[in-house]
Amino acid sequence: MRRFEWIDGIDVSDLELPVRQTPDSAGYDLCALHDVTLAPARVTLVPTGVRARMRAGEFLALYARSSLAIRYGLFLANGVGVIDADYADNPSNHGHIMIPLLHFGEKDIRIARKERIAQGVFTAFLLTDDDSPKTQKRVGGFGSTL
């Protein structure tokens, strides 16, 4: 059940779900859902229009594409994004993956619809021997695991 899905109600007629570019690529390229202008010294959430489904014991690690830093002076604001397996059913945003980009340049930068902006790598994780998670369900988006 590891896959990407479109968020309902979004025009994706000219887009494709995230794909790997080569057989040896670890990351699935995520694209901007629409044109976005990024102001200098600010964080901008760039929507992708997709959610990720994965098995228990996995997460989707999000990394900025290296070309963003080289061409635009853009970085992931949180370094590495972590999309938990239960994020896809988040009632506040339906699991919509948003990419928080920080712009270090001096002029506005425009990201075009369909431009590849991040890579998602499905990753397994380990638990401590005495792991005892809280039983609450996720009810929010960014920074809101309750």
UniProtKB/TrEMBL annotation:
Its EC number is 3.6.1.23. It is an enzyme of class 3 (hydrolase). It catalyses: dUTP + H2O = dUMP + diphosphate + H(+). GO terms for biological process: dUMP biosynthetic process; dUTP catabolic process. It comes from the Bacteria. Gene3D superfamilies: 2.70.40.10. Keywords: Hydrolase, Nucleotide metabolism. InterPro entries: dUTPase (IPR008181), dUTPase-like (IPR029054), dUTPase-like_sf (IPR036157), dUTPase_trimeric (IPR033704). Residues 16-145 form the dUTPase-like domain. SUPFAM superfamilies: dUTPase-like. Pfam families: dUTPase. One of its GO terms (molecular function) is magnesium ion binding. PANTHER family: DEOXYURIDINE 5'-TRIPHOSPHATE NUCLEOTIDOHYDROLASE (PTHR11241:SF0). Belongs to the dUTPase family. This is dUTP diphosphatase. The lineage of its organism: Bacteria, Bacillati, Bacillota, Bacilli, Bacillales.
